Amino acid sequence: MGEKLTLGPVMVDQILNALSDVTRRRILLLIAQDNPRSREEFIPDTVDDEGETEYMISLHHVHFPFLDDAGFINWGREADTIERGDNFEYLKPFLRVIVEHQGPGEAGSVPHKAG
């Protein structure tokens, strides 16, 4: 059996904050499936061309920095790649529960928009 990870209160808060947002959940679920990924892979099919710029701005200025600061992802700003961070392991049990209980079309189950 694998080593049990111990979470302090700060890490629990960061995990819950990360998972409380549908965009961040989607990022983390996609990274769990395939690692690394390019920024364009995180644009949902439901975002039209007009909303794509606004969505990309929110990824760049809100979601990627938050997840990178928490250590859940490593965001290579220059290469525009996103991969699992050092603290990603702490998220795995939470992500498994989300995947097991989400319905079709819920956060993370929407296919990405091809770049």
Global Rg? 14 Å
Structural class assignment:
mainly alpha
* Count of spatially separate domains: 1
Task: Indicate the CATH architecture.
Answer: Orthogonal Bundle
Shape: globular
Tell me the CATH topology. Answer: Arc Repressor Mutant, subunit A
Instruction: Please give the number of β-strands.
Output: 3
Q: What is the N-to-C succession of helices and strands?
A: HHEHEEH
Enumerate the strands of the largest sheet in spatial order, edge to edge or round the barrel: 1-3-2
Please explain how this structure is put together:
This is Transcriptional regulator. This protein is mainly alpha-helical. The chain is built from four helices and three strands, in the order ααβαββα. It has a single domain, classed as Arc Repressor Mutant, subunit A (Orthogonal Bundle). It has helices at residues 9-19, 22-33, 49-69, 88-101, and strands at 37-38, 73-76, 81-84. The protein has a three-stranded antiparallel β-sheet with strand order 1-3-2. The termini are far apart. Mean pLDDT is 84; it is low at 109-115.
Write the layout of secondary structure elements.
Blueprint: H1 9-19, H2 22-33, E1 37-38, H3 49-69, E2 73-76, E3 81-84, H4 88-101
Antiparallel strand pairs: 1-3, 2-3
Helix pairs in contact: 2-4
Protein name: Transcriptional regulator
